[in-house]
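Final report, results section. Input specification for complex C-07:
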Amino acid sequence: MDTAQKNGASGEILLEVRGLKKHFPIQSGFLRRVTGYVKAVDGIDFYIKKGETLGLVGESGCGKSTTGRTILRLLDPTAGEIIFDDPNIGKVDLAKLNRAQLKRVRPNMQIIFQDPFSSLNPRLTVGQIVGEPLEIQKVASGQKLKDRVAELLQEVGIRPENMTRYPHAFSGGQRQRIGIARALALNPKLIVCDEPVSALDVSIQAQVLNLLEDLQEKYNLTYLFIAHDLSVVEHISDRVAVMYVGYIVEMARTEQLYYHPKHPYTEALLAAIPKPDPRKRTRPIKLPGDVPSPANPPSGCYFHPRCRYAEEICKVERPPLRDIGGEHWVACHFAEKLQLQGITPLNEIPLIELPRRQASVSATTTAATQIPHPQSLSSQV
Amino acid sequence: MANGAIGTATATTGARVVSEDDVIRVEDLKLSFYTTLGVVRALNGVSFNIPRGKVIGVVGESGCGKSQTGLAIMRLTPGRIEGGRILFREFNAGEEIDIVQLDKNGPEMRKIRGNHISMIFQEPMTSLNPCYTVGYQIEEAILLHQTQDKAEARRRAVDILRKVGMPNPERIADSYPHQLSGGMRQRAMIAMALSCTPTLLIADEPTTALDVTTEAQILDLMRELQHEIGTSIMFITHNMGVVAQMCDEVAVMYLGRIIERAAVDDIFYDPKHPYTISLLRSIPRLGVARGQKLESIKGTVPDPYSTVPGCPFHPRCPAAIPGLCDAVMPDEVFVAGSRTHTVRCHLYT
Ligand SMILES: Nc1ncnc2c1ncn2[C@@H]1O[C@H](COP(=O)(O)OP(=O)(O)OP(=O)(O)O)[C@@H](O)[C@H]1O
Ligand SMILES: Nc1ncnc2c1ncn2[C@@H]1O[C@H](COP(=O)(O)OP(=O)(O)OP(=O)(O)O)[C@@H](O)[C@H]1O
Ligand code: SF4
Ligand code: SF4
Ligand SMILES: [Mg+2]
Ligand SMILES: [Mg+2]
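Structure output:
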């Protein structure tokens, strides 16, 4: 999907983040003195347009979840602005709101978590889990509440009869659907999806990804989609932002970023994806060393100790994130000069035809049936 | 195309690719768990072979029995082996030993585990002892099987840690497992499994917890070692990308059975079993059909305590034949015109 196509020409901005920082104090010793800071998010800028999906990728510990949680004010930011276009009160800086003010904005921003096994309260029924936000916000009660919960469950492909069952009676994919139903309860505008399919089997993963796409279309939802699987992110995102040690190093339209990366770290990430095609075997770009600790990042460009294009300036000067044209943002001193390698598209899996067989053992016909198209496969579970 | 398959190649004994030089031949392996909630039939007649020097991928949904197959070969499964054979042949034309017949704690089995077959476990902490440093544990393994020289063992331990991409191998060698991050522990375990240069390496999701850049490096390293030492690898994973990059052959499992087995190219370009086809079509493919819906497999795997009559995939199969698939279990047969590609599905019998 094309960003411009999906949003019309306007591309109105729903969320804009400026200079966002989240530093966690490191305490040590008997007196719990603060001896340093984990700079989990260290001055990031990005925006999400209405109705689009912004993918956020990067290696473990680079600050993706912290970013998502800070935006929703589940964590308090250390610095920066989080400008959200609330449908009722207009543009507000979430970073400056107090608890009471936040409560008014909250219904419009929700989160879906990675782990479908621990993110649902095991002592509540599915009906209570999905209905809870409605009760807290005093939107519905009694029969009205029940009807709304049934409607929400239906929406995510869970039979409403299941309302009285507990989460343990459901599979991972079903629990993730329940989490999605809960997130949808208050008609949010923005949903932060924090690794929503990482814990699921591939076939179930496809069900949940399709559901998220259907819901987005139906309700014009805006997603911040956090994941470390770059194939999933490519599939679902209109634009993608790449994080490295608490900092966004590249952000661009999906095709642009995958085919024409401008940051050396993005290039290395793309080269490392195991491609599901035995005829396209690739070797990774060797990155020396490990991902640095956000408590003790290197000088200059944080990527310089591992970057094969690094020069003297990279050790001393941190490159800012800048637009090099066409909404392509890069934080590298040499973004315009470097010739980097993007992905090459994979072959499509050939459409496989299955021979048709009748129940009677001898009968064979020459007609071939195809595996039905996904739409005709019920997603009801 | 596949119509030619119908009615051909059906041997009553089922299809089996038998090669003279297999490191492992598993035949009709059955494994169950007796729990208070009922019996879990984890493996219902698993048969496959691992040719010497090859990497064979084992894929399938969570709970289909991948880990238990690996653990059975190591004789480390807590389940009860109820039938079948696991034939191990240390070197070409050597003697075949049925692992199932050995005492699982006896000296022969211990020798096989320490010297010839090693396993990288799905949970890193299960094979690292929290009381000893990582380096000590690797040195012990080396001293046991390779050299008596302590300094040499130390040198090799540090070397193997460097090979798995540890940034500071000397320091890591002196660290305890709890001092390392999840990814580092995983790498320490891989180093330990590789340190004895095994005949067969069973790698159970060895890179699942790692970031892509680390994963790619570990895969590269495993490939290198496989070329250098000629180790055979049983590579358990659910990542079809990793399979495509790493494996020579692939076995696809569903509910405790192997339902398709072929060379990696055939699995990706000429898959036969409806489950394999759906599996391939449900993964997002880079650069292909963005914005188009992924194919998903309807429903979920049935719970392990129940048994499904007929073909175990029939409740989810878009091509199921009423009256046949829900009643009769399909045999494993060769795909028409192939001596290596087998499938267990009525569409091809
Ligand atoms: N409450 C906390 N206190 C101290 N440090 C924290 C806290 N939460 C996160 N961190 C640190 O902040 C950094 C970023 O963590 P975060 O969870 O945002 O990473 P992530 O990109 O989501 O990683 P993953 O892919 O593993 O989920 C890490 O170094 C982490 O250890
Ligand atoms: N200790 C146990 N007690 C009872 N059942 C068990 C036990 N261990 C495994 N099982 C069952 O055996 C079956 C096969 O499990 P196994 O761990 O081999 O699956 P797997 O294919 O490795 O799955 P995953 O991809 O999740 O690792 C499952 O149904 C599981 O529930
Ligand atoms: S600024 Fe220098 S070190 Fe950083 S990514 Fe660019 S070339 Fe590499
Ligand atoms: S045997 Fe029948 S149900 Fe099973 S996979 Fe083949 S067509 Fe589908
Ligand atoms: Mg996270
Ligand atoms: Mg397993």
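The radius of gyration of chain A is 23 Å. Residues A 24, 38, 40, 58, 60-66, 228, 294 surround adenosine-5'-triphosphate (ligand 1) (CB under 6 Å). This concludes the modelling results for the funded period.
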